[in-house]
Write a structure and sequence with these properties.
By secondary structure, the protein is α+β, with helices and mostly antiparallel strands. The chain folds into 2 domains: 323 residues, Deoxyribonuclease I, Chain A, CATH 3.60.10; 85 residues, Sandwich (Immunoglobulin-like), CATH 2.60.40. 21% of the residues lie in helices and 32% in strands. It has 8 helices and 19 strands. The strands form 4 sheets. Strands 3-4-2-1-12-11 form a 6-stranded mixed beta sheet. Helix 2 packs across helix 7 and helix 4 packs parallel to helix 5. The protein is globular, with a radius of gyration of 24 Å.
Length: 431
Amino acid sequence: MLNRLIVLIFGVLSLQSLAQTENIKLVTYNLMYYKTGTAPCNHNRSAAQRDADLQTIVSYLAPDVMVVQELGNNPVNPLVMLQDIYNVNGVSLYDRAGSSNNSSSGLVNMLFYNTDKLVLESQDFINLDVNQAPLVRVIDFYRLYVNDPGLGTPGVDTVFFTIGVAHLKAGNSAGDADERARATAAVMEYIDQNVSDDNVLFAGDLNVYSANQTAFQNLVNYNSNPSISFEDPINQIGAWNNNSNYANVHTQSTHAGSSGCFSGGGMDDRFDFILASSAIMDNNDGLNYVSYQAVGQDGSSYNGNLATSTNFSVNSTVATALYNFSDHLPVEIELEARVSGIGLEPWYRAKNQWTFNNPVKSKLSLQFKNEFSKLPLQIRVTNLSGQEMGTWTTSGQSEFNIDCNAWPSGVYLLQLSDGKEFLETRKVIKR
């Protein structure tokens, strides 16, 4: 019995030493009456042009999870999008969630996800407030887990997380604000009573003008159970509407003047959000916050058209597609999920586990994390002719420095090994 216990303990410790992280990119995007049969407006661009714009945007984003709002409620739409927008140009890894809706809206939410990285475990929705009165639109909840290659191996678990997706009532009247408040109160009650995960995100077009509005306060200061309150990952809490102090986080409108289905007014509102639970922000349950951005927002378009030819955030092709497709910008959050490292190819195990300065002048400084900061690793540098510049072995550390003063200027190959197999080869430039 004691021997079995010792074997189990060492097995668990070895799995922990293999632990890696997997990057997960989550995007939310208001598609502006996409594939709707009942839009209260006429699009300026043809259906084929809009498809091309969205394909450009999705290809650039390469999301692992993408939740969308203002999609027409025909259940065939997600299937068509998989074929025409996501699984194109040799890509075949995307799938989608099931459709849900109520009888009062022709607009729905949808979730698309990378099946190589994630599994959709379940989904649910709410369409009533806490008093059982109908909401304007359905609010969807999706539970996913990381598709760890080590699943099935004794001692290997995975990371679960839940995403709530909403398109709250638009408008700046007291009645509109009350509709939004009813919806977010229902969201928090649902999470409190039905969501078992600590890793929770809430995303979508919230249509809030200020953090002081009740709808937003319900999310970030939930009095009934403060522990489940959400956080703004970038901590840009304030009165966003028409406030230049928040120019770098505004998500609407990409157009200064209204035309077709585009709302005017320029970039002066932060309507689109991805909020995260404290477990994610504090990395308490295997899912960790890395970065957040409004895609295409470079801070230069306050109260004007989205910059296209001079956009510092994305290239002109993507910026133009963003301008042409929707009056909202996508919002992206990058997360790191814990994975076991079992069953991964060597190069995949090494991905995201080490970085270095490039180009270099006098010192090559390598940084290691997770498993690689604990293991002895072998480093070998050669020039492009195969001449070896040196080999080094780390002693299980987070940083390792190499003096490269004597190296001639040029391109070198930096090889990393764990002593059993080569993990990865990268190029480094010596100035």
